[in-house]
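Support request from a user on the community tier.

User writes: "When I paste my structure tokens into the form, the page sometimes reloads and wipes my input. The last time it worked, I copied everything first. Here is what I submitted, just in case something in the input itself triggers the reload:"
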């Protein structure tokens, strides 16, 4: 039985991380255990400050992922939840659909593989030829495309804010600007400490995004991976070009990489963005080009898994770096499917940083990765489509909690 309030300063639940996954988890815990005491800790002075607030704002359908993966299952459920939650809370969203465009025979073969995966995943999809693609989107060229009608656009920061307000209405406490320096788990509780003091809880859930590996090591679990930051740079098209496309336009991705490629994305605010690329970063939270953080850089450069990734994907890494340094290279990626774009169309826009888990053997972790101890659960890898999947991830985490340990 979960008790309300704290007893001797001990919370029933503590959640670390104020991104959309952490806030959704706090919401789910209080929904599943009414009257429980809960505190959410976030080191920034606002919620959703990193991946949640720096993405394309896409409600993903679940087309890309292996049918038996967490991403496939949770993304499908999350797309439906996101639309329903937005409608119930007056959060603007639009189901505009997405076209995955194949520009050559190699991509067309991958496109057909994605079609079969979509069917296996229960995602509605339509294969169209070059003529139909041109009819639907006159500015786009390709040898064929997949149309995914369920894909949409939204502002995930607004979803997070609405969830946080409900968490507080249900009695949850949100502590911003709270840094975690120590996690100590005993048979009866978990103590989370930092410069501002300590929080003690019966159960801890860590949704730390770009800092997930550091908090995992702090808690004494899994030292065989690192979060590697991949900087995703975006451009914005001029206002007069915002109507260039009506749907999201994506390339057919390389299945060896966990990135979706440079895409044209209408936003819910009426802009049209291009991006992101994926450049190995030297600062986990440095959004300005050329940002370097000494600790983050050493983490990347010292980890053998990163060296193996670099050797395996050397050509891709060099291309991404070149396109980051030279706008014409970046433009060439876009012009493969949108030939009318020019360098003057690429205006500065904010960047994002993807938290990508890399194992010691050089494996890029493609699926969500979650580990638990008797009194804690750690989300170790939750890049896209984590924002779409936030509430199903939260439900999955809450289902992992062993109730006898919370008595």
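"...and here is what came back when it finally went through:"
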């Amino acid at each position: 039985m979960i008790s309300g309030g704290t007893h001797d300063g001990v919370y029933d639940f503590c959640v670390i991380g104020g991104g959309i996954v952490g806030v959704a988890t706090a919401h789910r815990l209080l929904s599943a255990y009414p009257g429980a005491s809960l505190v959410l800790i976030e080191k920034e002075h606002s919620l959703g400050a990193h991946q949640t607030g720096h993405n394309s704002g896409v409600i993903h359908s679940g087309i890309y992922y292996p049918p038996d993966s967490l991403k496939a299952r949770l993304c499908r459920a999350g797309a439906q939840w996101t639309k329903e939650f937005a409608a119930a809370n007056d959060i603007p969203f639009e189901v505009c659909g997405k076209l995955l465009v194949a520009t050559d025979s190699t991509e067309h073969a991958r496109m057909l593989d994605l079609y079969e995966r979509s069917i296996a995943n229960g995602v509605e999809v339509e294969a169209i030829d070059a003529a139909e693609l041109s009819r639907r989107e006159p500015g786009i060229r390709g040898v064929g495309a997949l149309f995914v009608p369920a894909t949409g656009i939204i502002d995930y920061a607004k979803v997070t804010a609405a969830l946080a307000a409900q968490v507080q209405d249900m009695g949850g406490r949100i502590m911003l600007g709270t840094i975690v320096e120590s996690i100590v788990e005993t048979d009866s509780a978990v103590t989370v400490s930092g410069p501002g003091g300590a929080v003690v809880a019966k159960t801890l859930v860590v949704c730390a995004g770009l800092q997930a590996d550091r908090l995992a090591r702090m808690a004494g679990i899994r030292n065989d991976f690192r979060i590697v930051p991949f900087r995703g740079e975006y451009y914005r098209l001029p206002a007069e070009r915002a109507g260039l496309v009506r749907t999201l336009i994506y390339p057919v991705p390389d299945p060896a990489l966990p990135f979706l490629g440079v895409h044209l994305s209408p936003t819910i605010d009426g802009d049209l963005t291009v991006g992101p690329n994926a450049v190995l970063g030297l600062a986990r939270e440095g959004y300005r080009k050329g940002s370097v953080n000494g600790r983050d850089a050493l983490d990347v450069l010292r980890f053998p898994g990163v060296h193996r990734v670099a050797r395996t994907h050397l050509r891709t890494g060099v291309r991404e770096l070149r396109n980051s340094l030279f706008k014409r290279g970046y433009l060439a990626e876009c012009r493969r499917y949108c030939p009318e774009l020019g360098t003057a169309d690429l205006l500065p826009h904010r960047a994002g940083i993807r938290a990508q888990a890399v194992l010691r053997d050089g494996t890029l972790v493609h699926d969500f990765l979650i580990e638990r101890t008797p009194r804690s659960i750690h989300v170790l890898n939750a890049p896209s489509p984590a924002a779409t999947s936030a509430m199903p991830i939260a439900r999955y985490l809450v289902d992992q909690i062993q109730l006898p340990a919370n008595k």
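Agent notes: The reload is a front-end session timeout and is unrelated to the input. Residues 70-88 form the longest helix (19 residues). The mean pLDDT is 94. Escalated to web team.
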